[in-house]
């Protein structure tokens, strides 16, 4: 068998873009481009996004970004609009959280759109809209007493 003379395999090639964390210049939209927030990932390099103009578009992640830039639901992206298909677009760039905050500060993004994945679930409680409230009309001591009775019940049984 021939001897391997390379400098490493695919795992070495994956680690090439370690300098991606550096500050980069903020890219604003041009003619034929729009800001969008990813609503859900569809697989096969596609996602669904709501653009700033209010339309929901099926977006295709370009090949240069496909396995190098990870996009998740709630991320702010720059999409290129298609002249011949209004309901489809191509993801050109993913904005990092600090870049999305800067875009909001410059007035490019509306205030209502979330800039992080965590902000897409802000305001919602558990189970998609139910909020946890303390039981009204009972005191803290009564709640503890009920919990201790339930615990004793489970221990006896």
TrEMBL record:
SUPFAM superfamilies: Nucleic acid-binding proteins. Pfam families: eIF-1a. Residues 113-122 have a biased composition (Polar residues). GO terms for molecular function: RNA binding; translation initiation factor activity. Residues 1-25, 111-137 are annotated as: Disordered. The keyword Protein biosynthesis applies. The keyword Protein biosynthesis applies. Residues 1-15, 124-137 have a biased composition (Basic residues). InterPro entries: NA-bd_OB-fold, RNA-binding_domain_S1_IF1, TIF_eIF-1A, TIF_eIF-1A_CS. It comes from the Eukaryota. Keywords: Initiation factor, Protein biosynthesis. Residues 16-25 have a biased composition (Basic and acidic residues). Transmembrane segments: none annotated. Signal peptide: none annotated. Residues 22-96 form the S1-like domain. PROSITE patterns: IF1A, S1_IF1_TYPE. Belongs to the eIF-1A family. NCBIfam families: eIF-1A. Seems to be required for maximal rate of protein biosynthesis. Enhances ribosome dissociation into subunits and stabilizes the binding of the initiator Met-tRNA(I) to 40 S ribosomal subunits. This is Eukaryotic translation initiation factor 4C. The lineage of its organism: Eukaryota, Viridiplantae, Streptophyta, Embryophyta, Tracheophyta.
């Amino acid at each position: 068998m021939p001897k391997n003379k390379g400098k490493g395999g695919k795992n070495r090639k994956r680690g090439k873009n370690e300098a991606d964390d550096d500050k980069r210049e903020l890219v604003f939209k041009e003619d034929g481009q729009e800001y969008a927030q990813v609503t859900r990932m569809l697989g096969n390099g596609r996602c669904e996004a709501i653009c700033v103009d209010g339309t929901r578009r099926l977006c295709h992640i370009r090949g240069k970004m496909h396995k190098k830039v990870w996009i998740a639901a709630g991320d702010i992206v720059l999409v290129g609009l298609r002249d011949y298909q209004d309901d489809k677009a191509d993801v050109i760039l993913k904005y990092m959280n600090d870049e999305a905050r800067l875009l909001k500060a410059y007035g490019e993004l509306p205030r209502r759109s979330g800039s992080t994945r965590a902000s897409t679930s802000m305001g919602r409680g558990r189970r998609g809209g139910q909020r946890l409230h303390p039981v009204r009309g009972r005191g803290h001591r009564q709640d503890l007493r009920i919990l201790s009775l339930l615990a004793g019940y489970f221990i006896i049984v």
